[in-house]
Design goal:
It is a single chain. The protein is 40% helix and 14% strand. Strands 2-9-8-7-6-3-4-5 form an 8-stranded mixed beta sheet, with helices on both faces. By secondary structure, the protein is of the alpha/beta class. α4 packs parallel to α5 and α4 crosses α9.
């Protein structure tokens, strides 16, 4: 028998549990006829959301123009619209020539890191992170260096601790704002301090702002490019979340800051984009409509809107639980509950997620999948209807009560309540 094909060794360092082992187990259960509530992916279309009609019309009206390749950086009108949008927000040095349209932000993250990194170069990545960032750094021969964003600080980073991690090999700082998985929204004063770090150490700012229009209860999103000024910065955005069009695979990367300093980097991104010819063309015709048309996300995030009420259901469920703690998400499409301190010791987030799926038919993502040094958190998406989320947390409570009762030899809550009522 021939030897098995060898694979890239660095893949052993990559984790992506969002679509990993638990998701494969979920497919096995579904093949057996089980119905699961899958909260592992922020996929609006899977929960009944639709891309706005004016975006759909924009594609339909130009479908006859979508057969040829376009420029490797994207349709000129799309790039001009994106550039104008960022200039209006205050970004410096942005032109259509510094805008790149890709097959979602994921592809552009990979291209930007491939253009930037030499073997052994370091990238400062938040912990918890969206694991594509650390994976793409590793697969482009770099080294992710994690700066902690702790729950006790609202999942915001400590700039002094972040700067202490800068070395001679550091090339960039990654920011995810609003944050996935925690829902943290970074205040302007914090962003100013991080920009100052990048300026002192000649670092590129890589700013994942895909959730920029999704905030709650007065939280204010601050784009970083206007704050960065001349400091080289890439701002990533797209249609998948704010405009609920994940399957269209339309994202963009906007390079701002001093043009001469980033000219070689811009040309490297252009070369890498050319090697894959171009991004999906039909979806690009929706970009102008998305950035100049009606605001359809704000009503969903306002009190009474579906996303706001789903978030409220999660917050209330965590407040009512003796086993859970939560930093209320200020933005994005996720919550990142933790196990209350009294019960956190020895908790295994992966074992919890597996039992929750097998016993209760709910798929969540274990917190350790987001490159954190602890195992007592999990992530859920806020996309289901509020009532379904209440049912989800009732199932979570049942699993936690079983696990914590076994681990801590405590009397279950229901039994304690019955005794107190006597």
């Amino acid at each position: 028998m021939s030897a098995p094909l060898k694979i890239r060794e660095r893949l052993s360092e990559v984790r992506y549990e969002i679509r990993g082992e638990l998701a494969r187990r979920a497919r096995e259960l579904e093949a057996q006829g089980r119905t699961l509530i899958k909260l592992n992916i922020g996929n609006p279309g899977a929960f009944g959301f639709r891309a706005p009609e004016h975006l759909q019309r924009a594609i339909a009206e130009r479908i006859h123009d979508t057969d040829p390749y376009t420029h490797q950086q994207g349709l000129p009108v799309a790039r001009e619209t994106i550039a104008a949008y960022h200039v209006a927000r205050g970004a410096q040095g942005v032109t259509a020539e510094r805008v790149f349209v890709g097959n979602g932000v994921s592809e552009l993250i990979d291209i930007s890191l491939r253009a930037l990194l030499n073997p052994g170069d370091e990238v400062l990545v938040p912990s918890p992170d969206y694991p594509l960032w650390s994976a793409a750094t590793i697969l482009n021969d770099g080294r992710p260096v994690f700066y902690q964003c702790k729950a006790e600080n609202g999942f915001l980073p400590d700039p002094d601790a972040l700067e202490a991690l800068v070395s001679a090999r550091t090339r960039a700082i990654v920011l995810i704002n609003p944050n996935n998985p925690t829902g943290a929204v970074y205040p302007r004063a914090l962003l100013e301090r991080i920009v100052a770090i990048a300026a002192r150490h000649d670092l590129l700012l890589l700013c994942d702002e895909i959730y920029d229009g999704i905030t709650y209860d007065g939280a204010a999103f601050e784009p970083i490019a206007p704050i960065a000024g001349d400091v080289p910065c890439i701002s990533f955005g797209g249609l998948s979340k704010v405009h609920r069009a994940c399957g269209w695979r339309v994202g963009w990367a906007v390079l701002s800051g001093d043009e001469p300093r980033s000219r070689d980097f811009r040309n490297a991104m252009d070369l890498l984009g050319a090697l894959r010819l171009c991004a999906n063309v039909p979806g690009q015709f929706a970009i102008e409509a998305a950035l100049t048309g009606a605001d359809t996300i704000t009503p969903l995030c306002a009190p009474g809107g579906r996303l706001h009420e789903a978030r409220r259901a999660v917050i209330e469920a965590c407040e009512a639980s003796p086993y859970l703690s939560l930093v209320a998400p200020a933005g994005a499409l996720y919550a990142f509950p933790g196990i209350a301190e009294a019960f956190a010791r020895g908790f295994d987030d992966h074992a919890f997620a597996l039992e929750l799926m097998d016993a209760e038919g709910v798929l969540v993502v274990p917190g350790n999948s987001f490159n954190v040094p602890y195992r007592n958190h999990f992530r859920v998406t806020l996309l289901p209807e509020p009532e379904q989320l209440r049912e989800v947390f009732a199932r979570i409570h049942r699993v936690l009560e079983r696990q914590i009762t076994d681990a801590h030899k405590v009397v279950p809550l229901a039994r304690r309540q019955a005794r107190a009522a006597r």
